[in-house]
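User: Could you check the structure of this?
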Amino acid sequence: MTFLLETPPADRHSLNEDVQGLIVGTLLVALSVQFLQASHLITGQIAGLSLLGAYWGGWSFGAVFFVLNLPFYGIAMWRMGLRFTLKTFAAVGTLTAWTFILPKAFTIGTIHPAAAAVLAGVTAGAGLLALFRHGATLGGVGIVAVWLQDTRGIKAGWVQLGFDACVFTLALMLFPLPVVGWSLLGAVVTNIVIVTNHRRDRYIAR
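Assistant: Sure, the predicted structure tokens are below.
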């Protein structure tokens, strides 16, 4: 006698699984911010603009990041639906909380910019993959990137890297070339991780 066990669709998760995915994903991205800040590097996307604002104006990264993401929720609702928008909003809020909590829990000492860039790129890439897999992003360009990959087949990593090029061009007005160069390395690592592993034929963010 054969017993068949019903399994859930591959692109669906339980509430507990989604909560776990959002917590782990945002924690990894928050850790990447720690690596960047420890070596005074920057990143791309809206997070990159947020770090520029934090360095330039002396504001909190978490606060700037949260505010800059607000206009993109309309795009998320319009193109991706309520479920995706709520998850993204929760992810952004959770990341904001982590960026306040982690610096109080530990600090990263001396670290070479190259090591910081690679470690930040890997942790950010892994964190974003976890969020994508659970139907969320960290807002901003990520919303547009996931939508383009899911509907047009354009790799999300390449979309984000294109925007990153604009962020780093702006960064050249505020930071020395070596800082921008090492930061670009981190962004390239992040987006290569996403291009390689975020596959529309394997799953679609929902």
